[in-house]
Write a structure and sequence with these properties.
CATH topology of the largest domain: TIM Barrel
Radius of gyration: 24 Å
Structural class: alpha/beta
CATH class of the largest domain: Alpha Beta
Order of helices and strands: EHEHEHEHHEHEHEHHEHHHH
Number of strands: 8
Shape: elongated
Oligomer: single chain
Mean pLDDT: 93
Number of domains: 2
Bound molecules: phosphoenolpyruvate, manganese (II) ion
Low-confidence stretches: none
């Protein structure tokens, strides 16, 4: 599965434009400047899924003509979000080049199925944003539903996940989840949306670079002619000039020699992972033995003081050798949990 568009394009495939279409003026002026920055696909949301009521919910079908004008005036392709079969019916009138499914919609299998059914018989490429939650099966389930309905070109947009912690990002990246999607669908096009992930202007450039270093195919970046006045997602939208600067300064590493050089690191990582597994196996064997001992001597399995001591020692030793506290804590917690499980009757 891939986007037809990707075949002849160099990385990154860039989609840019405002979070929402607000007026004809705003859309056209943004589009002209975005095209000047070298972008070939223009985005704008017409129907906005807002988490809370009372916000700007989009101009709706009125904006379809504006999008069409953008394509006519700039030659860029156009993409917008669809969440219902009614949206698809309306948007088909302007023959969009691509469509995307938003994060809230991917969360709902009924909605995705309804969209897939409405798309039967069309040949429009569809980009599927990751669901808000970390349930990867919702994301891959959406891809399967579209694929089963005959959608030939499917891509993914990684926009980060809604979590209680990780407040430095609006939505935590959790890069391993899209990597697992690439494992499940090896040829699928993968884009990163640094705007919804970072939630703030300053994070756009570093996230774009990270995505390129992780071999993403492209980027979807919210760009507004006047971000301060934006009716939605104001804090994360950048100007077309900022977009141009970010794109010009991206470092694209795809030199085959550099990629070959990774091989040596990879074998070292494989060896170390192997060692780690063997050490863990020995650790669990001791846990089983101590479990037997506790049972014989009627000692309770879990002792809070001992666990605390193990955790604190590991954290301070870890610090000395440059390991992050949260990382050490999560490893020790996982080891402890497994160890307690093995000792329970
Ligand atoms: C958007 O792209 O403007 C949007 C609503 O995104 P998401 O579905 O990722 O929240
Ligand atoms: Mn947005």
């Amino acid at each position: 599965m891939y986007l037809v568009e990707m075949k002849n394009l160099k990385r990154p495939l860039v989609i840019a434009g405002p979070c929402s279409a607000e007026s004809r003026e705003q859309l056209l002026s943004t589009a002209v400047a975005v095209a000047e920055a070298g972008v070939r696909i223009f985005r704008a949301g017409l129907w906005k899924p807002r988490t809370k009521p009372g916000g700007f919910e989009g101009v709706g079908a009125v904006g379809l003509e504006w999008l069409k004008e953008v394509r006519e005036q700039t030659g860029m392709q156009i993409i917008t979000e669809v969440a219902t079969p009614a949206h698809i019916e309306q948007v088909m009138k302007i023959n969009p080049n691509l469509l995307w499914i938003g994060a809230r919609t991917t969360t709902d299998p009924f909605a995705v199925q309804a969209i897939a059914d409405a798309l039967k018989g069309t040949s429009i490429p569809i980009l599927v944003k990751n669901p808000l939650s970390t349930d990867i099966d919702l994301w891959s389930g959406a891809v399967e539903r579209l694929s089963n309905a005959g959608v030939a070109s499917i891509g993914l947009i990684h926009r980060g996940f809604s979590t209680y912690e990780h407040k430095s990002y609006r939505n935590a990246p959790l890069w391993h989840i899209p990597m697992e999607m690439k494992r499940r669908f090896p040829s699928i096009t993968l884009l990163c949306d640094p705007s919804h992930m970072g939630g703030s202007r300053t994070l756009i450039a570093p996230i774009c670079q990270q995505a390129m270093d992780l071999m993403y195919d492209g980027l979807m970046i919210e760009t507004h002619i006047n971000p301060e006045e934006a009716l939605s997602d104001k804090a994360q939208q950048i100007t077309p000039a900022e977009l141009k600067f970010i794109l010009q300064n991206l470092i694209i590493r795809e030199n085959s020699k550099e990629i070959e050089g990774i091989g040596a690191y990879r074998s070292e990582i494989d060896e170390l992972d192997d060692e780690l597994l063997k050490v863990l196996s020995r650790r669990m064997q001791i846990s089983r033995e101590i479990g037997e001992y506790k049972k014989e001597h009627k000692i309770p399995v879990f002792q809070n003081d001992r666990y605390n001591e193990i955790l604190q020692t590991a954290i301070s030793k870890g610090k000395e050798i440059g390991l992050d506290e949260a990382f050490v804590r999560s490893i020790i917690e996982a080891i402890h949990q497994e160890s307690v499980r093995l000792q329970l009757p």
